[in-house]
Specification:
mainly alpha; 63% helix; binds protoporphyrin IX containing FE; transport
């Protein structure tokens, strides 16, 4: 049987590393840093959001974890996230995947998942 995306991303350890690095990239990306820098003063909240995000991507890529966070619309409602911010987040994820030597197939699979979630994130 073909390997799951979860397994190709290095299971929970690989996905945790990606999420940590993506958040660091967001903190330094001027298009989205104002959304994320305030969490530097709320380390416990940031830890919980990262924990939820790791489980979200684990569950969504074929891992056994259960996602206990909020659904995408509830999470992003009221933020009025722009298309440009959405793209900046996608760029950061692709950059982190490059930095971790993930291949084009994995990047395409992740892109497809991110694209399918777009309407639950932007302009809400
Ligand atoms: C397809 C793209 C995206 C996905 C899959 C996604 C996923 C998530 C997940 C799983 C959480 C955690 C929810 C929880 O803890 O209950 C979260 C939180 C958050 N997301 Fe996104 N997100 C996306 C795009 C974005 C974009 C483009 C921005 C803004 C530039 C953004 C800003 C945030 C913020 C600020 C939080 C923390 C919310 C809070 O403190 O309540 N997200 N996101």
């Amino acid at each position: 049987m073909a390997k799951t995306l979860y397994s190709r991303l290095g299971e929970i350890n690989g996905i945790t590393k990606l999420v940590d690095e993506v958040v660091d990239l967001h903190m330094g990306n001027p298009t989205v840093s104002p959304r994320f820098v305030p969490y530097r003063d709320q380390p416990e909240r940031l830890k919980l959001i990262k924990h939820h995000t790791v489980h979200f991507f684990c569950a969504g890529s074929g891992g056994p974890q259960q996602y206990a966070g909020r659904d995408m619309v509830t999470t992003h409602k009221g933020m009025n996230i722009s298309e440009q911010e959405y793209l900046a987040v996608v760029d950061d994820i692709m950059e982190a995947m490059d930095n971790n030597n993930h291949g084009d197939d994995e990047k395409k699979d992740v892109l497809a998942i991110l694209y399918s979630l777009k309407e639950g994130v932007i302009r809400l």
